[in-house]
Design goal:
By secondary structure, this protein is α/β, with parallel strands linked by helices. The protein has one domain: Aldolase class I (TIM Barrel), CATH 3.20.20. It is about 45% helix and about 15% strand. It contains 13 helices and eight strands. Helix 11 links the parallel strand 7 and strand 8. Bound molecules: 2-phosphoglycolic acid. 2-phosphoglycolic acid binds next to strand 8.
């Protein structure tokens, strides 16, 4: 039942189409690891040129958001079939930056998750606590709530295909990632929560990533935790270091 590892880059609001293609071309030879699924979640305008650039490789392209309606008067939004029609496989949903700057909440995340599955897009569903919430001792309660709402009405067949990303907000873009034991503790709690909702089989199959200041030095330890199936990588996904993260399983061998 071994789950395949996954390392996804979240480019956020970086890279013009021209720069995006040049970065993808630089990264393609560096992100070869047959045991790891690799994806780049790029700005929408970069999607088509990036899809062209990854043709013939096993790299997937994702969006960083998507609306939960099919089409219509929703200025500035992107519809699911616009993404699938060009070959997008993944969509990040509920990233903390969307929650804090763009009024995303657990209910809208749930609607988007349901819509993504209707269109066969794999959602990368983000959850995570602020530093204050961690200090208040409510991390696991909050994460369980985020997960339960995100998966409300999602069938077990779909749930097992979802990817969850645990991203403590205090670790995003700060250079200070969660300690390995902290990340493992929450990822395990997420898996337990999925088990409560869907049972053992879905819990064993669903992939749970850790995100928040993942880099070439901490990737090996983080990605070797029993409940961490990969990483969602922001800053380091814009650098050649991303290749080292994808090849986290070789890092130790090299330093030994
Ligand atoms: P970071 O971002 O790796 O730059 O901390 C992670 C994310 O926001 O997905």
């Amino acid at each position: 039942m071994a789950r395949r590892k996954m390392v996804a880059g979240n480019w956020k609001m970086n890279m013009t189409p021209e720069n995006a293609v040049s970065l993808i071309k630089t990264l393609i030879p560096l992100v070869q690891n047959e045991d790891v699924d690799v994806a780049f979640c790029v700005p929408d305008l970069d999607i088509i040129p990036c899809l062209e650039a990854v043709k013939g490789t096993n790299i997937g392209i994702g969006s960083q958001n998507m609306y939960f309606e099919e089409k219509g008067a929703f200025t500035g939004e992107i519809a699911p079939d616009m993404l699938t029609s060009v070959g997008v496989e993944y969509v990040i949903l509920g990233h903390s930056e969307r929650r804090s700057f763009f009024a995303e909440n657990d209910e809208t995340v749930n609607k988007k998750v349901l819509k993504a599955f209707e269109h066969n897009i794999t959602p990368i569903i983000c959850c995570g606590e602020t530093l204050k919430q961690r200090k208040q001792g409510i991390t696991l309660d909050l994460i369980r709530m985020q997960i339960k709402i995100a998966f409300y009405n999602v069938s077990p067949e779909n749930a097992k295909k979802a990817v969850i990303a645990y991203e403590p907000i205090w670790a995003i873009g700060t250079g200070v990632g969660a300690r390995t034991d902290q990340a493992q503790e929450v990822c395990k709690a997420i898996r337990d929560c999925i088990e409560e909702i869907y049972g053992d089989l879905v819990a064993k199959e669903i992939r749970i990533l850790y995100g928040g200041s993942v880099n070439a030095s901490n990737a090996h330890d983080l990605l070797n935790q029993p409940d961490i199936d990969g990483g969602l990588v922001g800053g380091a996904s814009l650098k050649v270091d991303f290749g080292k993260i994808v090849n986290y399983d070789k890092i130790q061998t090299e330093s030994n």
